[in-house]
Amino acid sequence: MSISQSAAKEHIEQLQRLQKKDPEFYQYLQEHGKDLLTFDDEGIDDDVDVDMEDAETQLDDETHEHDIAEEEEKQSKNIVTNAMVDSWCNSIREDGKLSAVHSLMKAFRTACHYGDDTGDSSAKFTVMSSSVFNKIMLFTLSELDRILRKLLKLPASGGKKETINELMSTKQWKSYNHLVKSYLGNALHVLNQMTDTKMISFTLRRLQYSSVLLAPFPSLLRKFIKVALHFWGTGGGALPVVSFLFLRDLCVRLGSDCLDECFRGIYKAYVLNCHFVNAVKLQHIQFLANCVIELIRVDLPTAYQHAFVFIRQLAMLLRDALNMKTKEAFRKVYEWKFMNCLELWTGAICAYSSEADFQPLAYPLTQIISGVARLVPTARYFPLRLRCVRMLNRIAASTGTFIPVSMLLLDMLEMKELNRPPTGGIGKAVDLRATLKASKPILKTRAFQEACVISVVEELAEHLAQWSYSVAFFELSFIPAVRLRSFCKSTKVERFRKEMRHLIRRIEANTEFTNKRRASVTFLPNDHAATSFLEDEKKMGTSPLSQHVLTLRQRAQQRNDSMMESSVLVGEKSAVFGSKLDQIPASDEEDDIRNEDGASAFSSSWLPGGDSWYGLSYLPLSQSLHTQLWKEIRMRVYTHIFLPINDFLLHLFC
User: Fold this and answer.
1) C-alpha span between 379 and 420 (Å, rounded)
2) What is the CA radius of gyration of the chain?
3) How far apart are CA 559 and CA 515, in angstroms?
4) How far apart are the C-alpha atoms of 266 and 440, rounded to whole Å?
5) β-bridge partners, 127
6) Is 361 helix (H, G, I), strand (E, B) or coil?
7) Are 545 and 464 within 8 A, CB to CB?
8) Alpha-carbon distance 436 to 378, whole Å?
9) Alpha-carbon separation of residue 531 from 55, 469, 523, 526, 540 (angstroms)
10) Which of 538, 482, 496, 484 is nearest to 513 (CA)?
11) Fewest CB atoms within 10 A around its CB: which of 221, 263, 366, 645?
12) In sequence order, what E strands does 372-439 have?
């Protein structure tokens, strides 16, 4: 019996039970609805049932095919083609059609969000190829700033926050501000998705022209600052430079809206990147420090407030170490993070020593550095002490202030580790620039002794040379000369004795040089005329000690170069920016000469959310950036291949 027959019999039985239970209702149905009670089950058979099932299946198949056809037709309408993009671009260039701008912005949003996990069902366009993606990104990033400025009736380039504040009350802003927000928001989104440094560099470089348009959108502004700081601290190649220029442009154009956040953020990013130092990373850290110092130039009064807070934090760490005298407290001071922060603020004070806003910071920083140098006066921390002396000499030279660093150096010569012959053999060459604490085996080597004594001679000569034109040079150099002679008598190492005698002869010659002129002066030591003593000779650098210091600097440079033959271009010299931040190019065309080639940056099969970014083509760079990248490659080979092999061989055969 089929399912249909059994259902019919069951229905008849239900009617019979209804007649027994409720005869009155059954009689009512007979009078008013006989059709409901008439049920014929003889026409029900298996063939009819099968035919019905086949009909339903066929209907379902036809419906499914119709749905697929509709979906394909709808999808074909949402595909962005090269022809569509070309027509939009031509319409915008030739006629400036607003409808084409809207279509391009929708396609740009699709390109920026392409591959996201959460799809946008309301998007007009949903599908595109990699070539279409590249064309949309390149045209939008290259041209949209000009288009938006034309719609908003802004100058062709540049602008300040005040200009945007006035614009926000106009009809143009109310009509087109959604285009500005869409452009900046989608560009920020795709920046977070990109992985290739060339694409990111080009995108940031183009967005820099529109940085002033971030003023009405503080939330977007904070996110852009965060992204740029991340790329500045962690990016490779030219990306840190491009990211910094973007941040600096924000600070110049928007002023107080982003200065505080940029100062705090860039200092935090600097600290995060200087936890560990080696000979190769030193120049990168110097580059980061120079970027911070350059950003400070934008607004010195505001930067002073932040610098005061950060220097005070360093002073509190030193105070805790002096009071608690625990290993943990000492460790917080005697680590690379703390020392690199001192180096940073030393560089800032030296750069702006003539500015009244930064002069008050020189004294507290000098006290902190002096306290750090004396915190643990042992031979193992000679490298750290020499680094502190170097910072003090820089501050003294830039501010013209006398800082008594000679005692810090001469005390080192009286310790037994530098007086006695080495007992640990020759040892490897020691780079004091990349060392804070020497291990006990290295402490007994000849290489460590030589590095320390030579550094003491160099820094002491630097200190005395700064005052080699002072009328009081004889009194200032008397005690150092006496203690150097004492070291020559006590040391048992002939090469150290020879080095000290040469320095003593230079001091004596400089004393004679100043005393000849000193005998003929008539002013008292406390007269203002004493400041002009030997002023012409100082400009020409003719004193014996000044000449000797030049020789020592050349020797130190040769020694450093021999320790690390390869270097990174973004080092101390290349990271020094121009002295005027307000010299911004008058037009985008002038700056485009130095831009990366955007057509090359967006000429790959990369799409957001995809895995095809490995096939990116080479981006033509300027000669300096090209040299930088090759030196970066050499640096990494030296660090990750040569040094480990060298250490392994030394461990194997020594």
Assistant:
1) 13
2) 39
3) 35
4) 37
5) 79
6) helix
7) yes
8) 12
9) 111, 10, 11, 9, 16
10) 538
11) 645
12) none
> Do 306 and 590 form a contact (C-beta atoms < 8 A)?
no
Phi/psi region, residue 470 (left: phi>0; alpha: psi -120 to 50; beta: rest), is beta
What lies within 8 Å, CB to CB, of 593 at 6+ separation is none
Residue 389 in this model has a pLDDT that exceeds 90: yes
CA-based nearest residue to 262, from 314, 213, 313, 227: 227
The full DSSP string for 93-112 is: HHT--HHHHHHHHHHHHHHH
C-beta pairs of 539-547 under 8 Å, 24+ apart in sequence: 543/465, 543/468, 543/469, 543/510, 543/513, 543/514, 544/468, 544/506, 544/509, 544/510, 544/513, 545/461, 545/464, 545/465, 545/468, 545/506, 545/507, 545/510, 546/465, 546/468
Helices marked H in 467-602: 473-490, 494-518, 535-540, 544-563, 588-592, 598-601
Distance of alpha carbon 334 from alpha carbon 344, whole angstroms = 16
pLDDT at 556 over 60: yes
Which of the pair, 303 or 618, is modelled with greater confidence? 303
Q: What is the mean pLDDT of the chain?
A: 80
Alpha-carbon gap, residue 285 to 291, rounded angstroms: 10
Q: Residue 287 corresponds to which tokens in the numbers above? A: 């580059």
Q: How many helices and strands in the chain, by DSSP H and E? A: 31, 0
Q: Report long-range pairs for 128-135 (Cβ below 8 Å, ≥24 apart).
A: 128/79, 128/80, 130/604, 130/605, 130/606, 130/607, 130/612, 131/82, 132/80, 132/81, 132/82, 132/85, 133/602, 133/606, 133/607, 134/602, 134/603, 134/604, 135/82, 135/85, 135/86, 135/602
Per-residue pLDDT averaged across 133-145, rounded?
90
The token duo for 570 is 């973004």
Is 653 a residue whose pLDDT tops 70? no
> Are 211 and 254 within 8 A, CB to CB?
yes
**Which residues have CB under 8 Å from 294's CB, separation 6+?**
244, 248, 577, 581
Which is nearest to 460 in space by CA: 408, 497, 512?
408
Q: Using one digit for the tens of pLDDT, what is the confidence trace for 457-487?
A: 999 999 999 999 988 899 999 999 999 999 9
DSSP string, 308-338: HHHHHHHHHHHHHHHHH--HHHHHHHSSHHH
With a cut of 50, say whether residue 612 has pLDDT above it.
no
What is the reported pLDDT for 35? 56
